[in-house]
Amino acid sequence: MKDVRVILASGSPRRREILDRIGLSYEVILPEVSEEHEAMPPEQIVKELSGRKAEAVESLVIKRRESGDDPSGSPVLIIAADTLVAYGDEVLGKPADRGDAKRMIRLLAGNTHHVYTGVTLIYTEEGRRKRDTFCESAAVKVRPMTEEEICRYVSTGEPDDKAGAYAIQGIFGKYVEGYDGDFETIKGLPGEAVREHIERILQKEGGEK
């Protein structure tokens, strides 16, 4: 990996923390993409959006190289992710405002929901391109919450930019009764799965998958 330029297509502190934990050196380039999507299962949505983010950063890297702003010829590995919460048939992304955040927390309180994180890796080297997209999921059980607790939590601002209007590693953790799956999937990037898929994409022969 020492000769590979790794790019994280996300400004999320949680995702940076996870890449730090698995020992990757990387830089951050923020993708500019629409997160609108067609109606489809949540696992397909997160795979679609993570792919869109990775391709947006890939296009930016190509433009910079063609313009001479980035003369580096090193192999490039782009890591992009997207996370959604689903309760029943409803997909919960980031809340539009704090009223929407309260609505989401009311849905989750006292119930079990699922978190889906999709990841796309794009690796390019000397004209060869490899792409790998996968999804991990986990179930989370939230204890019943009073309206006062919901309002107090939302007023902290923690839900503002979080899928499902909460952060399990933050204040909301005290309302979580338990979970089934990988904790880092819930945080927004399944670190061990990412490590395994990176190893595969660097070793795999051939082109785009």
Describe the structure.
- This protein is α/β, with parallel strands linked by helices and 209 residues long.
- The chain has six helices and seven strands; from the N terminus they run βαβαββαββαβαα.
- Strands 1, 2, 3, 4, 5, 6 and 7 form a seven-stranded mixed β-sheet that branches.
- Helix 3 (98-108) packs across helix 4.
Mean pLDDT, all residues: 92
Q: What portion of the residues fall into strands of 2 or more residues?
A: 25-35%
Count of helical segments?
6
- In total, the number of strands is 7
Q: What best-fitting shape do the alpha-carbon axes yield?
A: elongated
- Supply Rg: 18 Å
Q: Strand-and-helix sequence, N→C?
A: EHEHEEHEEHEHH
Could you tell me the CATH topology label: Maf protein
Low-confidence runs of at least 5 consecutive residues: none
For the biggest sheet, the summary is:
7 strands, mixed
- Helix/strand-derived class? alpha/beta
| Terminal residue distance | 21 Å
CATH architecture type = Alpha-Beta Complex
Provide the domain count: 1
Helicity range of the residues?
A: 25-40%
Query: What is the CATH class?
Result: Alpha Beta
Could you give a short description of this structure?
With 209 residues, the protein is α/β, with parallel strands linked by helices. 35% of the residues lie in helices and 26% in strands. The longest helix is centred in the N-terminal third of the chain and has 26 residues, at 42-67.
